[in-house]
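Notes, p. 3: input format for complexes.
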Amino acid sequence: MKIRVLTLFPRMFDCLNESIIGRAIKSGKLDFEAVDIRAYSKDKHQKCDDTPYGGGAGMVMTAQPIYDCINAVDPTHEYVRIYMSPKGEKLSDGLCRGLAANDNILLLCGHYEGVDQRVLDLCIDREISIGDYVLSGGELAAMVVIDGVSRFVDGVLGSAMSHEDESFSAGGMLEYPQYTRPPEFMGRKVPEVLLNGNHKEIDKYRKQQSLEITARLRPDLIGKD
Ligand code: SAH
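Output follows (225 residues plus S-adenosyl-L-homocysteine):
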């Protein structure tokens, strides 16, 4: 999968070079690049923001650098062009799976008060939010989307890991509790059933735990899937 992020702060994306996503980038499962919008500004000081028409606090990102940047990265509109925005569709397990089915995604990160509406109207296919709160920029939101989506791209998690028995996947429930060595820690024992190697029993126990935890913490998820 090819992912391009358009941002005024490309170095923020350096942290994607770690862990599972970092490995996927190194092995070529993900082709990722953070593109600096400022490099496309025609202003003599490479300015990319200005005061809002109609007044009000803060600055708005200007249309020209974003328009030229999008058209340089995606001249034939092969990417799904997404603007990270608190007004967008809320990110979910289903949305991550859906986005992972695309070959190319482009994520535009706003900053300050946001982006001139005209460039959104001209270039953007959809808007995605990571929740009902306002961040100072779209960069962290884009990283959440990249991580959440990449897990569903073939080969990213590797054969040892699966996304199919995680929270929100198996029947839309939350996951059962996990334990690892040692069998006893600070006087607390790992549930006996997990130690006896009886996979039928383990499966039954985990399903029951999953149901109990979901009913307690997220009753809204029960019967949803
Ligand atoms: N003035 C805007 C918020 C701008 S916040 C409003 O009130 O709607 C600055 C930038 O951060 C936005 O352009 C967007 O790209 C990003 N952003 C802020 N909150 C976000 C969220 N919940 N999800 C995704 N992106 C967000």
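The mean pLDDT is 96.
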